[in-house]
Amino acid sequence: MSCNRLFEFLKTINLLRGVVIILKRSSSKTWMLLLFFVIAINISGCSHQAVSNQSSQATTVTKSSSAEEKIHIINKLEDAGLGPLTEENVSIGGIRFGDSQQQVLKLYGEPSKKTTLMGNPRAGIKSTSEWRYDKLGLSVTFTYSKIVYAIGITPPSTLRTNTGIGIGSSLEDIVRIYGDQVYGYKPDQRLNNQFIVITGTKQPTWATYPYPSLSITLRNGLVNEISLYTPTP
Fold first, then answer.
1. SS3 sequence of the chain
2. Which of 13, 21, 49, 227 has the maximal Cβ count within 10 Å?
3. Considering the entire predicted model, what is its pTM?
């Protein structure tokens, strides 16, 4: 026996030492019956504790699956419904939609790298620019008019959303904040990751799913990448 009841059983045996002389005066059959009774009681106690431990473990598993059950499984992003996000109520690392390049510079200084993403004037697509902060695991993308419309973080970033979600957060953390307003693909068992998204309150006729969107990739059950996006004006 490997539970605490074993020690109580040993204590009982010690107490019985004081009555051994009396037991010897009785028949051997009486002595054996009493000993069997003591052993049965203690084994029963161990079994009860083992069942309690298994029940506790089962409760833990239920908590994990409960978070997964609150996710609306979708096959494509177009299936995602309206969510709680607005351009005003979500941010990452203090950066919000519509912030200027000067505001980002004030928060984090000069980026490690600046990249211009060329547009296509004939198709009505204007040029944008991306700033990367490698040590912060941060990327910020600006519209042609130099205001923020996309923010992303990857390891080793310690930045978080305004609701406290960051690299290393769990699915339970996300569900605790957004409840049943989380959409996602089925977990990829081979790669051990899952893509989920929290959507916004608006869905223009040209948009495939509601904006703004907070896209999150989980790996081994923990957040590995976060991307916050809204369409360019």
1. CCCCHHHHHHHHHHHHHHHHHHHHHCCHHHHHHHHHHHHHHHHHHHHHHHHHHHHHHHHHHHHHHHHHHCCEECCCHHHCCCCCECCCCCEECCEECCCEHHHHHHHHCCCCEEEEECCEHHHCECCEEEEEEHHHCEEEEECCCCEEEEEEECCCCCCEECCCCECCCEHHHHHHHHCCCCEECCCECCCCEEEEEECECECCCCCCCCECEEEEEEECCEEEEEEEECCCC
2. 227
3. 0.69
